[in-house]
């Protein structure tokens, strides 16, 4: 019997970009990327309740975001439209991941909605079909549906799975919300990093092309990154910011740095996951 049902709490884990290169730009304006996505055990949590009507209701709206524009609601309605499903659901979302942090929280939430409701409504779409729906919601949504740590290319939809070592991550969250569009739209963003083969990539290789832009426009990101690099030279920003992180092969080493965190600086420890916990759904 499958463990996942209407009584379940469904995880929406965060991701880290172990590197993030901008290698080009399409004619339609979308940026061509290369990155490695690593899932971690810090996650939002979702619950679903069946309804007697076909409405999609977000029981826990996020302040400042209209429910009809929330990615969780949009994901559920797209699944209804794509399958002709007449069932409804009330969505309960517990946000543990910061918005504008580069951790993929909203995309992960949307992916979990698609995976969960496809299962609960028994709409029967394949994972590949769900990824296509997810891509219309955002470039990061498909990787969460894919569910494996992966080397991603294109606009983030082409995957080559990678094996990653066990690591504990110290993630720091500057108290700023970095809009992805502001970073991608910057005129001084480097967009011609040399393409590398997924088979040639090695753990620890690469940088984040968006990091210099975020550090200039959001000084708190630069401050946090500078502090972290005093303790871990390989520290990076994830996504388009604002969070920065460093991986440690030994948990005790991560804990030792975490204990030195200055008062007022926000952060947490998280372990890398081998795969998304819904990958076998």
TrEMBL record:
Pathways per UniProt: Isoprenoid biosynthesis; isopentenyl diphosphate biosynthesis via DXP pathway; isopentenyl diphosphate from 1-deoxy-D-xylulose 5-phosphate: step 3/6
SUPFAM superfamilies linked to this entry: GHMP Kinase, C-terminal domain (SSF55060), Ribosomal protein S5 domain 2-like (SSF54211)
Protein's UniProt keywords contain Ribosomal protein: no
Domain GHMP kinase C-terminal: start-end pairs: 210-263
Iron-sulfur among keywords: no
Active site: 15, 140
Residues bound to ATP: 98-108
Reactions performed catalytically: 4-CDP-2-C-methyl-D-erythritol + ATP = 4-CDP-2-C-methyl-D-erythritol 2-phosphate + ADP + H(+)
GO MF annotation list: 4-(cytidine 5'-diphospho)-2-C-methyl-D-erythritol kinase activity; ATP binding
Domain GHMP kinase N-terminal: start-end pairs: 71-148
GO terms for biological process, alphabetical: isopentenyl diphosphate biosynthetic process, methylerythritol 4-phosphate pathway; terpenoid biosynthetic process
Domain of life, source organism: Bacteria
Record EC number: 2.7.1.148
Keywords annotated in UniProt: ATP-binding, Isoprene biosynthesis, Kinase, Nucleotide-binding, Transferase
PANTHER family: 4-DIPHOSPHOCYTIDYL-2-C-METHYL-D-ERYTHRITOL KINASE, CHLOROPLASTIC
Family per similarity comment: Belongs to the GHMP kinase family. IspE subfamily.
Free-text function comment from the UniProt entry: Catalyzes the phosphorylation of the position 2 hydroxy group of 4-diphosphocytidyl-2C-methyl-D-erythritol.
Listed name of the protein: 4-diphosphocytidyl-2-C-methyl-D-erythritol kinase
Source lineage: Bacteria, Pseudomonadati, Pseudomonadota, Betaproteobacteria, Rhodocyclales
């Amino acid at each position: 019997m499958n463990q996942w049902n209407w009584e379940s709490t469904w995880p929406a884990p965060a991701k880290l970009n172990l590197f993030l290169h901008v290698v080009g730009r399409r004619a339609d304006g979308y940026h061509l990327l290369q990155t490695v996505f690593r899932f971690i055990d810090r996650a939002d949590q979702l619950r679903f309740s069946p309804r007697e009507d076909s409405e999609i209701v977000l029981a826990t709206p996020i302040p400042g975001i209209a429910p009809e524009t929330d990615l969780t609601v949009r994901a559920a309605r797209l699944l209804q439209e794509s399958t002709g499903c007449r069932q409804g659901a009330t969505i309960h979302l517990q946000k543990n991941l910061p918005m504008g942090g580069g951790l993929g929280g909203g995309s992960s939430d949307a992916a979990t909605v698609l995976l969960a409701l496809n299962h609960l409504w028994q709409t029967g779409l394949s994972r590949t079909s769900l990824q296509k729906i997810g891509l219309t919601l955002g470039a990061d949504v498909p990787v969460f549906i894919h569910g494996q740590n992966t080397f991603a290319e294109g606009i983030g939809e082409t995957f080559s799975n990678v094996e990653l070592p066990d690591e504990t991550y110290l993630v720091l969250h500057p108290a700023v919300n970095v809009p992805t569009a502001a970073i991608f739209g910057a005129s001084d963003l480097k967009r011609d990093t040399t393409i590398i083969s997924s088979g040639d990539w090695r753990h620890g290789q690469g940088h984040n092309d968006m990091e210099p832009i975020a550090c200039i426009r959001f000084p708190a990101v630069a401050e946090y990154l500078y502090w972290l690099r005093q303790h871990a030279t390989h520290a990076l920003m994830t996504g388009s910011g604002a969070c920065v992180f460093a991986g440690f092969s030994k948990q005790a080493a991560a804990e030792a740095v975490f204990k030195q965190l200055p008062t007022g600086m926000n952060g947490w420890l998280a372990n890398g996951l081998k795969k998304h916990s819904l990958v076998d759904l």
